[in-house]
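[RESIDUES AND BACKBONE]
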Amino acid sequence: MPRFALGIGLGHQAPVEGAFGVPYDRPIRHLRDYLLALRSLLDTGTAVVRGATVTADLSGVPAAALRGGVAPRVPLLVAAMGPQALRAAGELADGTLPYLAGPRSLASLIVPAISAAAAAAGRPAPRIAAGVPASVTSHPERAKAHAFQALGGYARNPSYQAVLDREGIKHPAELALIGDEETVAAGIRRYLDAGATDVRVSPAAFATDDERLRTWQLVGQLARGNVTGGGAFTVTDPSVRST
C-alpha cells in the first residue's frame, strides 16, 4: 500500500461560504467535477473537464510540467459520510476517510454504500480509512471530560447529527476511544470488524504528551502485528504535523 494518500472533502456550508466566500451550491455535482479533474491531473499531469461547477483545460500545458503519472499511483480518498457523496467517492475515487463515523455508521451505511458504488463502476474495493479520536490513559474520566470540550463543535454541526443518531449517542466524544491499551485496542478492532480497512487515530485534541506517546506506542504495536488482528493503522496528530 502506498505510504501517501490524498484526502479531500466538501467542507461545510458555513465555513466555505463565510471564510472563503465560495457559494456552497450543488456540492455533490462540484465533488464529481472536481474528482474528474483531480484524478486526471494525478494520473496524467493534464485534464480537460468542462463540468457544471469546474472547468479545467490544461490541454496546452506539457504533462511533464505538472508531474502527473507518478508511481505508485496516488490514492485519492474523499471525506464522505452521506449516500450521495459515498456514491461519488465509490465511482470516482479510491475510498473514503470519514471522521467520527462510528462502527454502526460504517457497517450500516458507509461500507455498503461506497462498496456497491465502486463495484457498479467496475472499480476495485475501496479503502475505508476511518478516523477516530483516541487516548491511551490512566485517567479516563479526565480524558473524557477534555474530549467533550474538544469535540463539542462537531456536536453543533448539522452534518454530524445523522451520524450521532445512527450511533445512538448524543455527543461525538462518546465515540472517542479512551482507556488503557486493551480498551483502545478493542475499540480499534470494532472499527475493523465494521469494515474499515484503515484506522486513523488522532489523540491530539485532548491528550497530554504522555498519553499521546502511549497512544503512538499502541498504534505502532498494532501496525507491526504485535496485537491480534489485521488492518492498517496511522496516528494523525496535527500538533506535531505527523502521520
User: Anything to note?
Assistant: The chain has two domains: 1-74, 77-243. Residues 1-74 form one domain. The chain is about 45% helix and 15% strand.
